[in-house]
Specification:
The protein is of the alpha+beta class. 27% of the residues lie in helices and 27% in strands. The protein is globular, with a radius of gyration of 19 Å.
Length: 162
Amino acid sequence: MSKKTRQPTRAELAARPTIAIDDQFAGRSLRQGASDLQQQPQGDNRHRVEHSTKFYVVQLIGTWVNIVESAERTVRSRNNLRWVTFENKEYELRKADALKPFLTRFVQGGCYAYVGGNHIDTEREVGSITAHPYIYISSTAALKIFNEMRLSRVGSLKRKSG
């Protein structure tokens, strides 16, 4: 008798290393749109029995931070942290007051941000946005590109001053 191989489960497929891990877009499509007003996180018009919240999906893409996508999900608590499931993975739901310092770190590192239709490239502009809860998703390739860019920027600043 020949041994039949079974189809892998969704969990097994998600746990497998794939090319998407090295893709700075993390295998996700990219959306952008320009606006004078910051777009707030949108819900999906579903009735939920448990507590849910609307949040931004923050994605680092090489040298810029993209915050255009939003979602509404049921919030679960574990270890004094809030968690949501987004695209079949669990992410920590971070508080709204942590968004501005989070973005400031990237802007100081030389990145620019795209927040709900607004282009942000200075710390002053970061202060003008309306903060909302968010999840942070990033691929290893995107973080590697950011760190290389940040280190090359620091090296060029040292050469100029020294």
